[in-house]
UniProtKB/TrEMBL annotation:
This is Proteinase inhibitor I36 SMPI. Pfam families: Inhibitor_I36 (PF03995). The lineage of its organism: Bacteria, Bacillati, Actinomycetota, Actinomycetes, Kitasatosporales. Keywords: Signal. Residues 1-30 form the signal peptide.
């Protein structure tokens, strides 16, 4: 085998390996793990899919304001709990659907449609709807 053939074979193998890794990386996995001092919620199990990351310790956000499904997994690297509040339009009221504990994580929360309804909020610290 000539040096040209060996070089071409090695280059092809490297390109195939790199292409396979890039094609299998989910959007969240490509961004890496949840950074320190952040709450990260994901719309797929195993910390995959789309991710919303928040550094605030006293505010709320609407998950529906982002390109995001329901909250399926989370990693809370904040020093405060975060709460997912479900909005009941018929009574114009909120109730806590899930607490995302400070320093906690779950690769599959197991609550269908968490945070997906219009008006649902995620609030960190002492923030309330």
């Amino acid at each position: 085998m000539t040096w040209k053939n060996r070089t071409a074979t090695a280059a092809s193998a490297l390109l195939l390996a790199a292409g396979g890794m890039l094609a299998s990386a989910s959007p969240a996995a490509a961004d890496g793990p949840c950074p320190a001092n952040r709450l990260c919620v994901y719309d797929q199990s195993g910390f995959g899919g789309n991710r919303i990351a928040s550094a605030s310790t006293n505010s709320c956000f609407f998950p529906q304001d982002f390109t995001f499904g329901s909250i399926v997994s989370y990693d809370n690297n904040l020093s405060v709990d975060a709460k997912v509040w479900h909005y009941y339009a018929n009574t114009n009221s909120y109730s806590v659907a899930r607490t995302l504990v400070a320093g906690g994580f779950s690769s599959n929360i197991g609550i269908p449609d968490l945070g997906v309804a219009y008006g649902d909020l995620v609030c960190m610290g002492n923030a309330r709807p």
